[in-house]
Design a protein that fits this description.
Layout: H1 8-15, E1 21-25, H2 31-44, E2 55-59, H3 62-82, H4 87-94, E3 100-103, H5 104-114, E4 126-127, H6 130-151, H7 155-163, H8 170-183, H9 189-197, H10 210-237, H11 241-267, H12 270-278, H13 294-318, H14 323-358, E5 360-361, H15 363-374, E6 375-378, E7 381-384, H16 386-394, E8 397-400, H17 408-416, E9 423-427, H18 441-450, E10 452-453, E11 461-465, E12 467-468, H19 473-486, E13 503-504, E14 516-522, H20 530-548, E15 551-553, E16 559-561, E17 567-571, H21 578-587, E18 592-594, H22 604-617, H23 622-629, H24 638-647, H25 653-662, H26 666-684, H27 687-697, H28 700-706, H29 710-729, H30 735-747, E19 765-769, H31 770-773, E20 778-783, E21 799-802, E22 806-809, E23 811-813, E24 818-820, H32 823-848, E25 851-859, H33 864-870, H34 883-888, H35 892-900, H36 907-913, E26 928-934, H37 955-966, H38 972-975, E27 980-982, H39 983-990, H40 1011-1024, H41 1027-1032, H42 1034-1043, H43 1049-1054, H44 1057-1064, H45 1067-1074, E28 1078-1088, H46 1090-1093, E29 1105-1117, E30 1120-1127, H47 1134-1156, E31 1160-1167, E32 1172-1175
Parallel strand pairs: 1-9, 1-11, 2-3, 2-8, 4-5, 8-9, 10-11, 12-13, 14-25, 14-26, 17-19, 17-20, 18-19, 20-25, 27-29, 30-31
Antiparallel strand pairs: 6-7, 15-16, 21-22, 23-24, 28-29, 29-30, 31-32
Helix pairs in contact: 1-2, 2-3, 5-15, 6-14, 7-14, 9-14, 10-11, 10-13, 10-32, 11-12, 11-13, 15-17, 19-35, 20-21, 22-23, 22-26, 25-26, 27-29, 28-29, 39-47
Length: about 1200
């Protein structure tokens, strides 16, 4: 095996010793090979012997750690074979297993297991799975929030009002979870809360606050750009008398006003800036008639519009408050933020205590327990503990891979176990794409900006690996051009200079058709979706490549015909789109593979099993039983369902099925027997065994195998069994609980991961997300769907978090409930927008650098002519696209067009689109092919529709249609009235507007039996129980209700026995026992009109509305009626219950008197929570 030739930079990275070194390794630069060779050189150096146990190598995936172990082991085997006499090599090879090569979490886990006694955790503490931890977090959050409600003295309620948007506290729970996850990326997160709360303590002038500094810095560059845009417009019209007459007065007025804003920002106070901005009043442009140069006209107007939008945004957003208003906002927010931060502390304490009790940890716990063992907080920094000092002495070399994806907590761990002379960090900040996992690329960037270039003597130092051993020069040159035009410290968090440029260093045979292509699709058919159009286009391009014998380089460095496995289609967000590409490729007969695993809960096979599970859990719920009956398992048709329904319209479907089965209906017999059998299985087996039984016994397995991607569907079914098994293993038992767990996942917008859709063979085109492609490479890459807008909706949230600027949120006038943005929120939004766009820039870099030999970019922009014209003025003085304009881009297509507009190869495209690319940046080493597709060359197969023959117009028919279309119903007002209302809805209409935003705490709605579900269970008991038996033996009566399916086991467990016993001892119960006539669950439906409902529905007129409801209990006493309503509301205030439900009982009384023809003598609310009655 020949010796590998290393570049000078690689040689330096492999051999440098004696100080901290950061290696910035560009895509395809061989960083993994460098890292492996460095470890081998360290372990084979007999002059400075190092045991494998003295080397710590940290990677960020188990697969990467395994691959590194394998590479090092294989290289040692080669060395030992070459030098069999070398005993040192043999000894090192034997000790290789003692080398610490692992993920950061595996290292932390080993450290914790060795020191568990110092952490007050059990020795058998285990790592919980994500879903188990999520369930526990929800449970603890409910408990903590409930405690806050119980002890609230006003501030917590105001916090809920501030961040909630509806009539519950969902936003509070979401805020709690988001904050907790965010702060745990910091090593001493409790101190983070203290530090950031101080921002709201001191009354610092807004311009000197951490938020004001950010806004002023942004405003300065923004206004400078606005001024430059107006000047550019004036230059454009200079000498053109017609345009000067129409446009120059307004533009000169704009310029004077914008210069005044610029001066205020540079020399004035905050209030001066607010005042000047509020006085900006752009003049109207004059009329420019019969002007021949539309391109010039659009350029001037576009420059002016850009400048106007900049100033408008500053006035409305960044300078949204004066100095005094800022101080008022801070004073208003201070107590709410203190309350929120205390809530987070309480949640942290409660959650950690519950985890300790259950012997559980999550991944963040691993990192923080490690920090607790290794570091002590000291004077704003940290000091190493004795354990850290021991590890520092043990490890002679500490190497960290993918350093750009570390967070602050992990960085602290690495510095605790290393010295100033032995830390070696490798990464590429341009490929840092995991900020959503709390990665902090700024840690890498700070070192890259401050470390000096490596010279072998001075440390800390940096080495840049820019040689690319992956891609053809045509690919690297196009990438270099694009990012040299776009990437900057403002967007991308670094300047893409010559040092960062890729240097093509791979050997490829010559090839003329490897130039990067940009395909611009103008889909002019509104009936064809852009995603579908792009998918069809790419499928055709691939088909052409395969059929024409397009070549790529084989293993022997000789060109060979391309195969499907050589091609990858990359999507930024493949959810609901990958399937379109799969179908388009399949239509062309091209084998395709994808690992996109979304939509698991919506897949046919899972929906089928879950519908049957829900029917088994409670067959008396018609909607669930209907889904099961009409599934592929039982195959009831719509007509057959109607027959079952009509058998007895008042009965549950299941009871009708039982009756029809006895009469010989075969389908009903099979359905009821299957459900009865499965209920028996479920009563004696855990949920995962029940699911396995369903899969095996109902034919679902065979049905799934016969569908498209049958293997993947069968894998999905097995995954469902596994998910249920994991749920049971967490200590949560029962089918009801598992189904509720799935429902809660859906409510939170979370998804279980499904199986990948495998192709029938390995030789298949890949369709994958850009994130999943990181670390991979493909001869041909199609980057598709680049016109998709960036997802910036999180920036519109009511609260935002930033590592350095802390917490920011809206302000609110609690009397009017109006929300207002704040200076802190706008400042944090600016920085998060910049960070988010920088992340998108890096994701684009990752996507483009996956290509080895051919890169094809597709886009479907709307109105390409107007878009190109809007970018015509985007060049800065450095001949790069202005960072401000890049920041305004909202898709990859926007960015790519900004950059490519000024390439010499784009001149024909600009001419075709009517754009004026007068400033061309020529790049002789980079070439692009632009292809503009307008409409369809031929109609796509999947879009073919039957075309109707068009006959001559029939005037009589036209008149008839017009007459029918123009006809109006005379009693149109009645159609806007509800045909039916419940009593509760009527009462709600009467009290509309009186409820606070957060009437029902969210802890009543989450995992476990919610408050509503417990209340329903109690009502079911009161309705269906034989109370004479219950009075004698309550538990036996509850068991009877469970056995007869009136209650589930979990509902029975939730019943408040004390409240029931108190009811049995109450005077009201004794009155009911003596009554000659008692009616429980009295259901009614009556018609009501103007007399009863006019106050609620003023427009009712002479119309009637059906009113329905169910009264809990009515009994007769002395020839009159007593109306009883049972309530489980958690309140000790009788007046609150009377106020809340009094109107409802009044309406019940009116209806009962009408229907039963007896007067109502008494209306009673019986509170099970207060264990007493309230007489109205």
């Amino acid at each position: 095996m020949g010796e590998r030739k290393w570049t000078p930079e690689q040689t330096a990275a492999i051999g440098c010793r004696g100080g901290t070194v950061l290696v910035s390794a560009a895509a395809g630069s061989g960083k993994t090979a460098v890292l492996v060779q460095r470890v081998i050189d360290i372990l084979t150096d007999e002059e400075k012997p190092v045991s494998p146990a003295q080397v710590l190598v940290v990677t960020f995936s188990n697969a990467a750690a395994a691959q590194m172990r394998q590479r090092i082991g294989a290289r040692f085997s080669e060395l030992v074979a070459e030098h069999p006499e070398n005993q040192y090599l043999q000894r090192q090879q034997m000790l290789l297993s003692s080398a610490h090569i692992s993920t950061v979490h595996a290292f932390c886990l080993d450290l914790i297991k060795s020191n568990f006694q110092r952490l007050n955790i059990a020795p058998d503490c285990r790592l919980g799975n994500d879903k188990e931890i999520a369930l526990l977090e929800d449970q603890v959050a409910q408990e903590v929030i409930e405690q806050c409600y119980e002890r609230d003295e006003g501030q917590f309620a105001q916090l809920v009002e501030l961040i909630s948007s509806g009539r519950d506290d969902n936003a509070v729970v979401e805020t709690l979870h988001t904050m907790y996850q965010f702060i745990r990326s910091h090593p001493f997160y409790q101190n983070w809360l203290i530090e950031k709360s101080l921002f709201y303590e001191a009354e610092v002038p807004v311009a000197q606050s951490i938020w004001g500094v950010v806004i002023l810095d942004y405003a300065k560059s923004a206004v400078e750009y606005a001024v430059s845009m107006v000047k550019k417009a004036l230059e454009e019209l200079s000498g053109d008398e017609q345009m000067e007459k129409a446009y120059q007065p307004a533009l000169e007025s704009d310029l004077a006003q914008y210069v005044a804003v610029k001066n205020a920002i540079e020399t004035g106070t905050w209030d001066d800036i607010c005042c000047v901005l509020s006085q900006v009043k752009p003049q109207r442009l004059g009329t420019l008639r019969n002007y021949g140069d539309d391109g010039k006209k659009e350029l001037v107007k576009s420059c002016r519009e850009t400048a106007k939008n900049i100033i408008k945004k500053l006035a409305e957003r960044q300078f949204c408050a004066t100095e005094q208003e800022f101080l008022e906002d801070i004073a208003f927010l201070r107590p709410k933020i203190e309350t929120l931060f205390q809530l987070v502390r309480d949640y942290d304490n409660a959650l950690m205590e519950e985890k300790r009790r259950r012997h559980l940890m999550d991944f963040a716990d691993l990192e923080h327990f490690a920090v607790e063992l290794l570091a002590q907080r000291q004077n704003g920094g940290f000091q190493k503990t004795e354990i850290a000092e021991q590890l520092t002495r043990q490890f002679q070399h500490v190497l960290v891979d993918e350093y750009q994806d570390t967070n602050e907590t992990q960085d602290t761990i690495f510095h605790c176990v290393s010295r100033e002379d032995n830390l070696f960090m490798v990464g590429d900040v341009k490929q840092s794409i995991y900020r959503f996992r709390q990665a902090m690329p700024e840690i890498f960037l700070e070192k890259q900006h401050t470390f000096q270039d490596y010279d072998g003597q001075h440390y800390p130092s940096k080495i840049i690996l820019s040689n690319n051993f992956r891609s053809r020069s045509q690919v690297t040159q196009s990438i270099n051009y694009i990012f040299s035009m776009l990437m900057s410290r403002e967007v991308g968090e670094m300047d893409y200079t010559q040092r960062e440029s890729l240097v093509a260093s791979a050997a490829f045979p010559p090839k003329e058709d490897a130039v990067t292509e940009v395909h611009i699709l103008e889909n002019q058919d509104s009936a064809v979706d852009d995603t579908f159009a792009e998918a069809i286009h790419i499928a055709r391009q691939i088909q052409t490549m395969l059929e024409s014998g397009y070549t790529v380089t084989g293993e022997d460095n000789i060109l060979r015909p391309v195969e499907p496995k050589d091609i990858c289609i990359l999507l930024r967000s493949p959810k609901n789109k990958a399937e379109v590409y799969i179908e388009a490729l399949s239509e062309q007969g091209i084998s395709v593979w994808t690992d996109i695993r979304g939509g698991y809960m919506e897949s046919v096979e899972i929906v089928t099993v879950l519908s049957l599970l829900r029917a088994v859990n409670n067959p008396l719920i018609d909607i669930h039983l209907t889904a099961a009956m009409m599934s592929a398992v039982f195959q009831f048709s719509a007509d057959e369902m109607a027959q079952v329904r009509m058998y007895d319209r008042k009965q549950h479907l299941y009871l009708n099925c039982l009756a029809m089965a006895e009469e010989g209906d075969e389908k009903c017999r099979r359905l009821t027997q299957t459900i009865q059998r499965l209920r028996m299985v479920g009563s004696a087996s855990p949920s995962y065994q029940l699911i396995q039984n369903i899969i095996e016994s109902t034919g679902i397995w065979a049905v799934a195998s016969a569908m498209s991607y049958g293997a993947a569907r069968q894998a999905n079914l097995q995954l469902l069994v596994q998910y249920a098994k994991e749920y049971d293993a967490c200590g949560y038992k029962g089918l009801s609980g598992f189904l509720r767990f799935l429902d809660n996942l859906e409510e939170r917008g979370e998804e279980l991961e499904g199986a990948p859709a495998f192709a029938s063979e390995n030789n298949a085109v890949r369709v994958m997300s850009i994130h999943r492609s990181k670390g991979l490479e493909f001869p041909i890459v199609f980057l598709a769907d680049t016109s998709k807008k960036f997802n910036l909706k999180d920036l519109s949230a009511k609260f935002l978090l930033h590592s350095y600027m802390g917490f920011a949120c809206v302000s609110r006038d609690l009397s009017t409930r109006k929300e207002f943005t704040t200076v802190p929120l706008e400042a944090v939004r600016l920085e998060l927008e910049r960070s988010t766009l920088s992340e998108e820039m890096r994701i684009l870099y990752v996507a483009l650098t996956r290509a080895k030999e051919k890169l094809i970019i597709t886009m479907s922009p709307k109105n390409i002519e107007k878009k190109l014209a809007s970018f015509n003025h985007s060049l800065g003085e450095d001949k790069r696209v202005s960072p401000y304009i890049v920041r305004e881009g909202r898709s990859y297509a926007d960015w790519l067009l900004m950059a490519l507009l000024y390439h010499v190869d784009a001149i024909p495209l600009c001419a075709d689109c009517g754009a004026r690319a007068e400033e061309n940046v020529t790049q002789p080493e980079s070439r692009f092919i632009f292809r503009l597709f307008r409409g369809w060359e031929e109609e796509p197969k999947a879009a073919l529709k039957e075309k109707a023959f068009v006959s001559a117009e029939d005037p009589l028919l036209v008149n008839q249609i017009q007459s029918q279309v123009q006809w109006q119903y005379q009693n149109i007002a009645a159609t806007r009235l509800p045909s039916k209302l419940t009593v509760s809805q009527i009462v709600q209409l009467e009290t509309e507007g009186e409820k606070p935003l957060s009437k029902e705490p969210n802890f009543l709605k989450k995992e476990g039996m919610t408050g509503a579900q417990k209340g329903t269970a109690m009502h079911n008991f009161l309705s269906y129980a034989c109370h004479e038996k219950g009075e004698k033996d309550l538990e036996q009566e509850i068991s009877r209700l469970v056995s007869q399916s009136f209650l589930t086991a979990e509902e029975a467990k939730s019943l408040d026995r004390t409240a029931i016993q108190a009811y049995y001892q109450s005077p009201l119960y004794r009155r009911i026992k003596r009554a000659p006539w008692v009616k429980r669950e009295f259901a009614f439906m009556v018609e009501m009109g103007k007399k009863e409902l006019e106050q609620v529905i003023p427009q009712i007129g002479e119309n009637k509305i059906a009113v329905q409801g169910i009264a809990d209990l009515i009994f007769e006493e002395e020839g009159q009626l007593v109306l009883v309503d049972f309530k489980t509301d958690r309140t000790y205030d009788p007046g609150e219950l009377a106020s809340r439900y009094g109107e409802q009982l009044k309406l019940y009384a009116v209806i009962a008197q009408t229907l039963l023809e007896k007067p109502v003598k008494e209306k009673i609310i019986y509170s099970l929570y207060q264990k007493g009655e309230i007489i109205l």
